[in-house]
Design brief:
Structural class of chain B: mainly beta
Distance between the termini of chain A: 37 Å
Radius of gyration of chain A: 14 Å
Strand content of chain A: over 45%
Order of helices and strands of chain B: EEEEEEEEEEE
Oligomer: heterodimer
Strand content of chain B: over 45%
Radius of gyration of chain B: 14 Å
Number of helices of chain A: 0
Number of strands of chain A: 11
Number of helices of chain B: 0
Largest sheet of chain B: 6 strands, mixed
Distance between the termini of chain B: 37 Å
Order of helices and strands of chain A: EEEEEEEEEEE
Shape of chain A: globular
Helix content of chain B: under 10%
Chain lengths: ~120, ~110
C-alpha cells in the first residue's frame, strides 16, 4: 500500500514553454502533498506544501507564479512549471501524507520526474 | 548554519564492512528522524525511522538518535555492493505540516 506515482517520469521541453507534472496517491487519500526539487548530487529541497482544496504554501525563495501547484482532489496534485528555462532543469519529486492517519509524520514519495529544458 | 548537516562523501568501503552514516541538526523541535536510500534518478526509499531518542534495528540496519547531542546515525552491517546509493537523513517536528528537512545526502560505494 501507500503508493505514489508521478507522470511523466521524464520530460524534455523547449525554453519558454510550460510543462505539467502529475502526482497521484494510488491507494490512499492525501490531504497534503509536498513538492521537492533535487539538483544533481544535491539534497531534496522542499518547494511547496500542497493542501487539497486550498492554496499551496511556498517555501522562501520559490516563485509561486512560476511553479503553479493545484491540489484539486485527495489523490492528485499537479505542478506546472511556467515559461521554463534551462536553469529549471532538475529532478522533481512529490510526496503525500495519508488522510485517515492525519497525525502521522510519514510521507510517501513518488519516483520523481526528470525535467530537461533545452 | 543549516538545520541539518550531513557529510556528502563519497564514502567507499569494501564489501562486508560496517558503514556508519551520520547527521547533526540544530532544531530541538525535531522529533521524527528518518533515513532514506536513493538510487540515481529514483525517488527516495524509506529505510528506518525513529521517534525521539533511542535505537532501532531492522535486519542489517540500525538507527540511533541522541537528542542531547542533536546527532543521529545509521549503521549498515555486512555491507553489500547493492547498498551503493545515496543515503539521506530527514527530520520533522510534530507540529504544523510535518514537513521534512533533508540532509545533503552521503554517497556510499561498496566495493566488491
Amino acid at each position: 500500500g501507500a503508493v505514489v506515482s508521478q507522470h511523466p517520469s521524464w520530460v524534455i521541453c523547449k525554453s519558454g514553454t510550460s510543462v505539467k507534472i502529475e502526482c497521484r496517491s494510488l491507494d490512499f487519500q492525501a490531504t497534503t502533498m509536498f513538492w521537492y526539487r533535487q539538483f544533481p548530487k544535491q539534497s531534496l529541497m522542499l518547494m511547496a506544501t500542497s493542501n487539497e482544496g486550498s492554496k499551496a504554501t511556498y517555501e522562501q525563495g520559490v516563485e509561486k507564479d512560476k511553479f503553479l501547484i493545484n491540489h484539486a482532489s485527495l489523490t492528485l496534485s499537479t505542478l506546472t512549471v511556467t515559461s521554463a528555462h534551462p536553469e529549471d532543469s532538475s529532478f522533481y519529486i512529490c510526496s503525500a501524507r495519508d488522510v485517515p492517519n492525519s497525525q502521522s509524520y510519514e510521507q510517501y514519495f513518488g519516483p520523481g520526474t526528470r525535467l530537461t529544458v533545452t | 548554519q543549516k538545520e541539518v548537516e550531513q557529510d556528502p562523501g563519497p564514502l567507499s568501503v569494501p564489501e562486508g564492512a560496517i558503514v556508519s552514516l551520520n547527521c547533526t541538526y540544530s532544531n530541538s523541535a525535531f522529533q521524527y528522524f528518518m533515513w532514506y536510500r536513493q538510487y540515481s534518478r529514483k525517488g527516495p526509499e524509506l529505510l528506518m525511522y525513529t521517534y525521539s531518542s533511542g535505537n532501532k534495528e531492522d535486519g542489517r540496519f540500525t538507527a540511533q538518535v541522541d537528542k542531547s547531542s542533536k546527532y543521529i546515525s545509521l549503521f549498515i552491517r555486512d555491507s553489500q555492493p547493492s547498498d551503493s546509493a545515496t543515503y539521506l537523513c530527514a527530520m520533522s517536528s510534530t507540529s504544523g505540516t510535518y514537513k521534512y528537512i533533508f540532509g545533503t545526502g552521503t554517497r556510499l560505494k561498496v566495493l566488491a
